[in-house]
Specification:
751 residues, alpha+beta, 28 helices, 51% helix
Length: 751
């Protein structure tokens, strides 16, 4: 019987110990990271993809600006009516590596971030594979799959996604022993908690599920105990991030879960069997890069990026060699469990929308991330079994032939049986428009009959097939490992094109510069195109306060206020009450005093001289309490009765205001209502209510000092819980040794 972590094949017995293995794994991971991450530090451009100018670059710019000012990016007043960046998570405010990386300017910082975390993922996966398979050659393949496989390369634009992913193989590494020792369970729980700080809850959740599957063992009660310890420590250590994120979720436009079309849109499709074996099955290249206009993957290019799973035919063949190995069972369980997530989601079960966490788990195909890692480990086990039996070679060859046959069948359906192909597409795409099925099929035919990519993949697979027959020496194993890396090294870099700095930051465009010149208190855009220089977050990154913003968890009340401003504010009272003094329209005249027309997008910039100066006092009748903490705010009455207040100090973490109230009333502050804000009036704690997405504080007649502070109590409690959990975990891990020592001392004393 094979035991996990033992070396049973001659091809794995290479000279040198763990030090040499770590060096080679590290070099392969680093080289792969440079290659697929397209790391040039500006010499040939910077990695770019769909969300880079909308989210990732602005977040990096805001992080860098905060660090240059000696603070963390906790709150930003230029986004919406102010936004709790630390709670949204994507920026990773509490993730320590970010504190160092984003000292650099945004573009170099993002390159360095990708380089560090891809390398880290590769090293972790390589050491994991080495521990499970005992094969140094297999470890190199696993490292390459983790750092260069399509599961992560298609998602490099989301740097918080990559940061969270980089910790996944390290968590699994600590749980690779069966059963893991106590200290390994504790350490894995701590790393799982650190992963939460990276700011991508879904990757964190998938890692937790994967860890649970690896911990399944007999006796069941002991396995359950390890799961509880691991989960308890991980949840507690990560609480500083996931608690504020959970609070924001409940206050966001996604409160209560996502609509079905968004929740189930990126589930598995009948064509996903092509993903692991063929890099260009769904898309063609344009020069050095993917051409997204040729994409035919059901649900579009965004879904294709989420579903990426390319490892290449050689890696699939090696993974198939491992299928009969006892060591492979846990990794097959992990692979199968993760495949079930997008498969079940494809049937759109009713319960999915009502189960907490699942109801917010967008893009279920992201579970393929763990599938890719599992394939890498299985491939390592497969290399360790080279030469073991003729049956093993048959399994490997069978995997190659099955993948090729699947490709051929789908290509034949697209060319010769269009009705069948179209029917499959309609079943694979949530609410697909039948009118676009035919052009999608035409793009599918073009991609599937574009011969160079599959020819390369088939050629490399053929070379591997020949070597499988001669699998008797370590040299052959190294040759197989190299061939397994080749397809990823050639076909994965084009996923993310290289662009110049003006494709990331629009701060130097006439549109943004025109708004910067206005020194606006807050900007409102009406009728803006979807993609332009002033898109949400770009203005905020350039220091222009923009009531529109873009994140995964926009505050619902601010979004409702924005909808009112754009659609139901004919006299401008709502706009003026919120202190919006600059309005931009597109293709039509703007309200207020015209300032300038920007030819780009035919944009008109106007100033509104009647916008209120914020903060201000209004009489008690202007706001009527509704469902706590919300109020019904009369914008027209506010404009007619407002009395300006004085700002004594204002920072991202608080403010001090002085107001002279003619009578009992309210102090209006255009900062978004958020439960972590605490306020006092003349030193006495007061309650903050919400009005049009902003803050409202009751003040009596007279002159008063109002102080507000962003307490971050939930974060402090989270870090405290994490510390307690770590101490308890260390005690639990040390208890058996302590008990044994006490028993030995008692026995010695009784002699």
């Amino acid at each position: 019987m094979e035991e996990e972590g033992t070396t049973t094949s001659r091809v794995t017995r290479s000279p040198g110990g763990w030090g040499l293995s770590l060096l080679t794994i590290g070099l392969v991971s680093l080289a792969g990271a440079i290659l697929v991450g397209r790391i040039t530090f500006g010499l040939d451009g910077w990695l770019w993809n769909l969300d880079t100018p909308k989210i990732d670059y602005p977040w990096a710019a805001i992080f860098h600006q905060a660090l240059t000012e000696g603070r963390l990016p906790i709150w930003n007043d230029d986004l919406g009516l102010g936004f709790p960046l630390y709670a949204e998570g994507q920026i990773g405010a509490f993730y320590p590596p970010n504190w160092l990386v984003f000292q650099l300017d945004p573009l170099p910082a993002m390159d360095l971030h990708r380089l560090l975390h891809l390398t880290m993922a590769g090293i972790g996966a390589g050491l994991l594979a080495l521990r499970v398979s005992g094969s140094r050659q297999g470890a190199l393949v696993a490292a390459a799959v983790a750092a260069m496989g399509g599961a992560i390369v298609t998602k490099l634009e989301w740097w918080n996604f990559l940061a969270a992913y980089a910790w996944m193989p390290w968590v699994f590494l600590l749980l690779a022993r069966r059963p893991p020792r106590r200290w390994e369970v504790v350490a894995a729980g701590v790393l799982w908690g650190v992963q939460a700080l990276a700011g991508h809850p879904q990757v964190w959740f998938l890692t937790g599920i994967g860890a649970g599957l690896l911990l399944v063992a007999r006796p069941a009660l002991a396995a359950l105990g390890r799961m509880l310890v691991f989960g308890g420590i991980g949840v507690a250590v990560g609480a500083a991030q996931w608690v504020p994120t959970a609070i924001l979720l409940e206050l966001s436009a996604r409160a209560g879960g996502m609509p079905p079309n968004e929740l189930f849109g990126n589930a598995t499709t009948v064509f996903d069997v092509l993903l692991p074996g063929f890099a260009n099955a769904f898309i063609q290249g344009a020069g050095r890069d993917w051409d997204y206009t040729t994409n035919w993957y059901p649900d579009g290019q965004f879904a294709l990026l989420n579903a990426g799973l390319y490892v290449g035919l050689p890696a699939l063949a090696l993974a198939a060699l491992a299928l009969r190995a006892p060591r492979a069972r846990r990794w097959l369980l992990l692979l199968g469990g993760m495949l079930l997530i997008p498969i079940v989601a494809a049937f759109q079960p009713e319960f999915w929308s009502h189960v907490p966490v699942l109801s917010g788990m967008r893009s279920p195909v992201r579970a393929y991330l763990v599938v890719g890692l599992a394939i890498g480990v299985l491939a390592a086990i497969g290399i360790s079994r080279l030469g073991r039996s003729r049956r093993g070679r048959t399994w490997g060859m069978g995997a190659i032939w099955a993948a090729l046959a699947t490709y051929l069948v789908i290509a034949v359906l697209a060319i010769a049986f269009p009705d069948v192909f179209d029917a499959l597409q309609l079943r694979s795409w949530w609410q697909i428009n039948p009118e676009v099925v035919e052009p999608m099929r035409e793009r599918a035919v073009a991609a599937l009959t574009n011969l160079p990519p599959p020819a390369l993949e088939i050629g490399v697979a053929a070379a591997v097939a020949v070597l499988l027959i001669r699998s008797r020496t370590p040299a052959v194993a190294y040759a197989v490992a190299i061939l397994a890396v080749v397809p990823m090294a050639i076909l994965m870099p084009p996923v993310n094109p290289l662009r110049q700095p003006n494709e990331f930051s629009f701060a130097e465009t006439p549109f943004v510069e025109g708004l910067q010149a206005q020194d606006a208190h807050r900007v409102l855009t009406i009728g803006a195109p979807a993609w332009y220089a002033g898109m949400p977050n770009q203005l905020a990154a350039a220091g222009v306060p923009d009531i529109a913003m873009f994140s995964s968890l926009n505050l619902l009340r601010v979004e409702l206020a924005l909808a009112e401003l754009r659609n139901r504010d004919p006299d401008g009272a709502q706009r003026q009450a919120l202190g919006i003094d600059t309005v931009v329209t597109f293709g039509a005249a703007c309200p207020g005093q015209f300032v300038v027309r920007i030819p780009d997008n035919d944009a008109y910039i106007c100033r509104d001289p009647d916008a209120l100066v914020i903060p201000y006092w209004v009489p008690a009748g202007v706001a009527l309490p509704a469902v706590p903490p919300h109020t019904v705010f009369d914008a027209v009455a506010a404009v007619e009765s407002a009395v300006p207040a004085e700002v004594e100090s204002w920072t991202d973490l608080g403010h001090t205001l002085r107001v002279t109230a003619p009578s009992d009333g309210w102090l209006f502050v255009d900062r978004a209502w958020w439960p972590s804000w605490a306020v006092s009036v003349d030193g006495t704690p007061a309650t903050i209510l919400e009005a049009s997405g902003a803050q409202l504080v009751a003040v009596p007649a007279g002159t008063h000092t109002v102080v507000a502070e962003l307490t971050l109590n939930e974060v402090k409690a989270g870090f405290g819980a994490g510390l307690v959990a770590i101490l308890l975990g260390v005690g639990w891990a040390a208890w058996p040794a302590f008990r044994a020592r006490r028993a030995a001392q008692s026995a010695e004393a009784s002699r």
